[in-house]
Amino acid sequence: MLKIHNLHAEVEGEKILKGVNLEINPGEVHAIMGPNGSGKSTLASVVAGNEEYEVTEGEILFDKSNISELSADERAHKGIFLSFQYPVEIPGVSVTNFIKTAINQIRKAQGLKDMPANEMLKKIREKSAMLGMDRKFLSRSLNESFSGGEKKRNEIFQMAMLEPQLAILDETDSGLDIDALKIVADGVNKLRTKDNATLVITHYQRLLDYIVPDVVHVLVDGKIIKSGDKELAKKLEKRGYDWLKEEQLV
Q1: I need a surface site. Which of 17, 25, 128, 143 has the fewest CB within 10 A?
Q2: Where is the signal peptide (predicted)?
Q3: How many folded domains does the chain comprise?
């Protein structure tokens, strides 16, 4: 589904990604861990099409098509979803109106008519019930005065409504207590199918107790230096990253 080959990227002349290689197949969950400043969030932003970052080398293939030159909205229309580490507040735009607009823009890009109102309402009811969301929540302005947990649950609700092929969760566990973490993870697990894939970016192994990855990658200084199963995440939790850096020097 996603194939990244020798990806180099920089921002304002500073090189951040220095040759990332990554392949994710349908039905898989991959996790990326690494120390601060290693390039994890940059990788998420580059795959999603953030124009602040300049790709200087390499390519990104999504569903076997090169998307390196596509804009962020074109990538979203193709089925890439990014859950932000710090979701922005949009006063005056309700959660429901925001998601209606997003869905219909994707449908428009695919040559489809707007989703009928009754079908949209049915889907909103189904997905909000699945995630245990209070219906009053949907009439509030997007992320305005939301707690950290509410913001992250709202991101998962958007993911449920949009049904992307590839969901990238950029430190979704940031600032969450254990109860909120379980709710978010449960939502991600319920949305997992054999046809979609998830890339989880996290600092902490605890999230991976609830969203169990097929593969864990370690990103250090702009490169993936090691990959393994979920046991690698547990090892990182105990030992940190220095032992991996030492391995690279041997």
Answers
A1: 25
A2: none
A3: 1
> Encoding tokens for residue 172?
């979704």
- Bridge partners for 29 per DSSP: 198
CA 234 to chain centre: 21
Query: Crossing angle for the helix pair 95-109 and 148-162, nearest 10 degrees?
Result: 30
The first and second tokens of residue 129, run together, are 């019930």
Domain that holds residue 221: 2-249
Q: Which of 160-164's residues contact partners 24+ apart within 8 Å by CB, and which partners?
A: 160/127, 160/130, 160/131, 160/187, 160/190, 160/191, 161/99, 161/102, 161/103, 161/123, 161/124, 161/127, 162/81, 162/99, 162/102, 162/103, 162/106, 163/191, 163/196, 164/76, 164/79, 164/80, 164/81, 164/196
Supply the pLDDT for residue 249: 52
**Residues 151, 157: Cα–Cα separation, whole Å:** 10
Report the CATH number that the domain containing residue 74 is assigned in CATH: 3.40.50.300
In angstroms, the CA 129 to CA 152 distance is: 16
Grouped pLDDT means (10 residues each) for the chain, 250 residues: 96 93 96 90 94 94 93 94 83 92 94 94 90 82 80 86 93 76 84 93 85 93 92 86 69
Q: For residues 73 and 47, is the Cβ–Cβ distance under 8 A?
A: no
Chain centre to alpha carbon of residue 141: 22
Yes or no: say if 217 and 22 are a contact pair by the CB < 8 Å rule: yes
